[in-house]
Amino acid sequence: MLRYLLLLVALLLPLNSFAITPEEVMKSSQAAFLYPGKDFKARVVMRLVSKSGSERARELTMLRKNYGETGGDQKYFMYFLRPADVKDMAFMVYKYPGKDDDRWLFVPALNMVRRIAAQDRRSSFVGSDFTYEDVSGRDIADDTHEITKEEKFGGSESYVVKSTPKAGDTDYGYKLSWIDKRTFLPLKEEYYDKRGTLYKVFTAEEIKEIKGFPTVVKRTMKNLQSGHSTETVFSKVDYNIGIEDSLFTERYLKQPPKKWLD
Amino acid sequence: MKRILHAFFILASCLTINAYAADYSVNGFVQGNYSFGTETSNPDGGDFKWAEERAQLKVEGAQEPVRLFLKADIAFDHIDNDAEVELREAYIDLTRERWDLRAGRQIITWGLGDLVFINDVFPKDYEAFFSGRPLEYLKKGVDAVKAGFYPDIASFELVVVPFFEPNNFPDANRFWMFDPMSSVTDRTEEEPASTLKNTEVALRVYRDIAGFDTSIYLYKGFHREPSMLPDSLSSPSRIDLIYSELAVYGISLQRSALDGVAGFEAGYYDSLDDRNGSDPLIPNSQTRFLLSYQRQLIEDLSVTFQYYGEYMHDYSEYERTRVVSFPKKARYRDLTTLRLTYLLLHQNLRVQWFSFWSPADRDYLFNPEAKYNFSDNFWAALGANIFGGQEDTTQFGSLDRNDNLYMQARYEF
């Protein structure tokens, strides 16, 4: 009897110790994708390409600082360089889990800081195919998660997680994410509409390790319905650079310090 | 003084190019801006409220801790057939860890109103706004020194303005406006002299208090809208336009609330030259306040609603002493604004509605506009200003015959 029990325990042990819940996969993915380092800096170039092939560009410097644990508060600072009509605009976001962001915009021509309403994180980010949520993350508790399978994707062992929004007012029905088992970065995401048709695809096209943090430096979001797509390239990426708390204030929104903007 | 300023900036620009050549940038635009009166011809017979081509050059140079900025326009006006050079902004910044300084011509915007100003006591160009020029031309620069102090307890902005700059109102040749003494054409404008005593001082203290962006404002200076001082009330032959003394004490609060952003701003306009309200030619003191609410209705569609009120103090004194030939002001005047902004086609098309409507005056200004970005460098906007009201003596009612259709097109580099 004892022998059988031991055998049973031996059988269950590795399974128990290695089994990972879908929430844990998503939490690790959030940590790897949106929270690495104490702070982060990148030059972001977005290429917006329409179905007919016409292109628009957006270029900005993005700074982020974490406050507390993964999934906790974050502050973002974005400083626009292109196109010309938004040059020198600056945008500041205080992101809180489970509650609306606080957002401020600086309009240089009027030397004016405006607070802007921000309850819809599914809105397009600067006209691109990415949403605010794609840039700064979505609360894990907003969806139910399920590991549908594990498979090799682009040479990496990955979990395939199906995330279904709990609230019905989201623009998609569910999302499938291919999460790399090693780095926990999302390699691909498929968005399905409420009728179950695939309509938007995210692809991590290039991953580089920077200061020990695997970083998606090139990503694409393609809208299959409109044919519009956005490619985002990060350059000058750096982590743990010591961004001060004072940066995320009206003072620096109006006069962004040059040292962070290169 | 102007000469000193010019010399200063020429010197500054030389410095920029020579010493700081490593870190400077040049940007700008060329623009066409035309506004056609749709209601009737202008008082001088013309049909255009605005017709010009304009080029702007922005030069910036920086070498920590100093930064220089220059924004200058050159424009050709087809209505008066003349060219003008305008120094929009020209200043030097000095930035330290706990304080900074900006000296020179600069645009300052305070308060949280959307085209309604209480604690933004800095000069405006209403002609630009009513003629369909790009919104940035609503603000005029001031020649001032601004100092910022940033201790942990709060942030402080202190502005000292030695040279008075009035608001700019529409040109009487181009705009039909109400004038209670239109027969008197002999007028002299008397701006406050640039003396130490007349130096304007404005202070703003701000910080976060329980999630509210909170500011306190103090200002001592002048009304920027002139008062008419006729040489005689019964048979005037000459009018002096003067700017009476004003102090403003105010506050503003803003935070996320009710699935949007809610704001409150108030100010007491202390009319220093007429504190008891008995001088009929100088504005009485007032309390002004503003409630605002902004939210996103659906993706890329946002709405802002504002309610503004101004209450005249010492109203009985005003009633007792007022000039009968001037239209009677109400004790309380209110104004609402509505802004709807819809971004379409990957935010390349912006369709916008802005309106003023005053329940007290029963007058309005409607301003619909569509702006399209043809490329990353070229955009054009088409819009209209539609004025009206029950009386022809109120702010927008008096502009009733000035409806215009405008076009702005800009290439940026």
The name of the CATH topology of chain B is: Porin
List the helices and strands of chain A in order: HHEEEEEEHEEEEEEEH
Mean pLDDT of chain A comes to 90
CATH class of chain A: Mainly Beta
Q: Judging by the overall fold, what is the CATH architecture of chain B?
A: Beta Barrel
What is the tally of beta strands of chain A?
13
Note the total helix count of chain B: 3
**Relative helix content of chain A:** 10-25%
Task: Name the CATH class of chain B.
Answer: Mainly Beta
In terms of quaternary structure, what is this? heterodimer
Number of domains of chain B: 1
What is the name of the CATH superfamily of chain A?
Lipoprotein localisation LolA/LolB/LppX
Largest sheet of chain A: 13 strands, antiparallel
Largest interface: which pair? A-B, 36 and 47 residues
**Major sheet summary line of chain B:** 18 strands, antiparallel, barrel
The radius of gyration over CA of chain A amounts to: 20 Å
Radius of gyration of chain B: 22 Å
Could you characterize what this model shows?
The complex is a heterodimer of chains A (262) and B (413). With 262 residues, chain A is of the alpha+beta class. Chain A has helices spanning 2-18, 22-34, 132-136, 250-254, and strands at 39-49, 55-67, 73-82, 90-96, 99-107, 112-116, 143-153, 156-165, 174-180, 186-192, 198-210, 213-223, 229-239. Chain A has a single domain (22-260), classed as outer membrane lipoprotein receptor (LolB), chain A. Chain A has a 13-stranded antiparallel sheet with strand order 6-5-4-3-2-1-13-12-11-10-9-8-7. In chain A, strand 9 and strand 10 (186-192) form a beta hairpin. Chain A starts with a helix and ends in an 8-residue tail after the last helix. Chain B is mainly beta and 413 residues long. Chain B has one domain (2-412): Beta Barrel (Porin), CATH 2.40.160.10. Chain B has helices at residues 2-19, 126-130, 315-321; strands at residues 24-37, 48-63, 66-77, 82-95, 99-106, 142-149, 155-161, 187-190, 200-209, 212-222, 227-230, 239-242, 245-257, 260-271, 286-298, 301-312, 332-344, 349-358, 363-373, 378-389, 404-412. In chain B, the strands form 2 sheets. Chain B has an 18-stranded antiparallel barrel. Chain B has a 3-stranded mixed sheet with strand order 8-12-11, with no helix packed on it. Classes of the chains: A alpha+beta (262), B mainly beta (413). The interface between A and B is large, with 36 and 47 residues.
